[in-house]
Amino acid sequence: VQLQACGGGLVQAGGSARLSCVVSGRDFSINAMGWYRHAPGKQRELVATITSGGSTNYADSAKGRFTISRDIAKNTVYLQMNSLKPEDTAVYYCKQTRYNGMYYWGRGTEVTVSS
Fold first, then answer.
1. Which of 26, 34, 39, 76 allows an S-S link to 90, with CB 3.0 to 4.6 Å?
2. Cα–Cα–Cα angle for 41, 81, 55, rounded to 5 degrees
3. pLDDT, tens only, 38-77
4. How much is the pLDDT for 85?
5. Contact 18/79 with Cβ under 8 angstroms?
């Protein structure tokens, strides 16, 4: 299983960005996906998850601003980020948690929000 994330870059505060994560392999629809981020000087933290059934969960910092979604036909999970703040600056990672408990991380994509 390989995960390839993209969509990061430099964004002005108040702007938007959409991250994408394409997952290779089979059984995309029956595995949970998540986005995490790692900011300088901080621990990696959960941003949002989506279960195999399509239920979503968000960190408090992401609620109302970020939306996680997926396109099963494209084996892709997205993170739409609106109203970005400088504190959203981080490297963002996608993660697949498979039905058997194994999990896989993608390489991160960096998002920098300028004030």
1. 39
2. 100
3. 999 999 999 999 999 999 999 999 999 999 999 999 999 9
4. 98
5. yes
